[in-house]
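Quick one, tokens below. Sequence please?
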């Protein structure tokens, strides 16, 4: 059995990943920004480089890590406040970079690092400028890190979801009109579930799939790759 680190394990997807890994018999070291949703092994500001490096040390020898940290901001650029922009960048891109940095220092025997991107970084979606900027940065980070650390057998990949029903997206998914519009955007006609994203993450973590690196895997109901039929 393997030993994994899940950063932001209190998120809906993070909780799902932890449950599935433990159900398979793996051990999991968990972190959260606070303990109001789960009881984590460590409280962590995942955007703080030193704290993230320390958590890797506390977790011990790990076979893989996933960073589930992120945020949601649906605003056009001209309505986005500077502090909102920095919050989005910190919660997604900075935490991802801190994870890559710590993994490169400590996972010297190889393993798997999985980051969370977004379909918003793969195609243009209105009012997603800050998220798109952060997640596109993650895509570039994955590609560069995969190249840098391939000689160490340290793999880097990302999962890029479409809209998924989580606590973070409840303002959209709990509104009937917004939900119907979102479902219609996805060629498969529905939004995703946390379990579907978790299964993709676990697939990339699994040592059996160790010939996969430098990939951005869209799990988005076809949103980023399929042009829907025009209905007249």
């Amino acid at each position: 059995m393997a030993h994994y680190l899940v950063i932001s394990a209190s998120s809906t997807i993070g909780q799902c990943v932890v449950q599935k890994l433990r159900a398979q018999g793996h051990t999991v070291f968990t972190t959260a920004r606070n303990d109001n949703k789960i009881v984590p092994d460590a409280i962590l500001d995942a955007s703080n480089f030193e704290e993230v490096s320390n958590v890797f040390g506390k977790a011990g020898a790990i076979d893989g890590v996933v960073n589930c940290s992120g945020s949601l901001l649906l605003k056009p650029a001209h309505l986005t406040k500077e502090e909102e922009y920095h919050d989005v960048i910190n919660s997604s891109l900075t935490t991802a970079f801190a994870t890559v940095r710590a993994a490169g220092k400590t996972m010297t025997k190889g393993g798997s690092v999985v980051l969370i991107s977004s379909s918003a970084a793969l195609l243009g979606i209105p009012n997603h400028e800050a998220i798109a900027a952060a997640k596109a940065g993650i895509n570039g980070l994955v590609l560069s890190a995969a190249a840098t650390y391939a000689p160490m057998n340290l793999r880097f990949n990302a999962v890029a979801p479409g809209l998924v029903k989580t606590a973070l997206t409840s303002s959209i998914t709990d509104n009937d009109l917004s939900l119907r519009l979102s479902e219609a955007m996805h060629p498969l006609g529905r939004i995703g579930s946390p379990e579907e994203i978790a299964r993709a993450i676990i697939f990339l973590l699994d040592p059996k799939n160790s010939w996969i690196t430098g990939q951005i895997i869209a799990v988005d109901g076809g949103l980023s790759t399929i042009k829907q039929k025009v209905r007249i």
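Helices lie at 12-23, 49-59, 82-106, 129-149, 170-173, 176-185, 194-205. The radius of gyration is 17 Å.
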